[in-house]
Write a structure and sequence with these properties.
Blueprint (H helix, E strand, L loop, with lengths): L12 H14 L3 H32 L3 H21 L1
Length: about 90
């Protein structure tokens, strides 16, 4: 099975020029820049889905943003104490 796939896309010329400048500045090829943009877009999409799920669950439980922060701190503290005693 192939570990990659070649795709063909059309990009507005102005965006290509900007991408070329960014790639050159970063020391990347156009292909590397495109792969990184693709990867980041997917990660942002997954993050938004997770955030939206968390907001929905917090509302369902009647939690405010401050409550969530405190619960996270409490959970992390418990996890640290468990790892120290293990």
């Amino acid at each position: 099975m192939k570990s990659s796939k070649t795709i063909s896309i059309t990009i507005p010329f102005a965006l290509v020029r900007r991408g070329q400048a960014v790639a050159k500045e970063a020391g990347l090829s156009q292909q590397q820049l495109a792969r990184e943009a693709y990867r980041r877009f997917i990660l942002q999409s997954e993050y938004r889905q997770l955030r939206d799920y968390g907001v929905k669950q917090a509302k369902k439980l009647g939690l405010k943003a401050r409550d969530v922060s405190l619960l996270i701190k409490e959970y992390r503290k418990e996890q640290r104490s468990l790892s120290v005693t293990s």
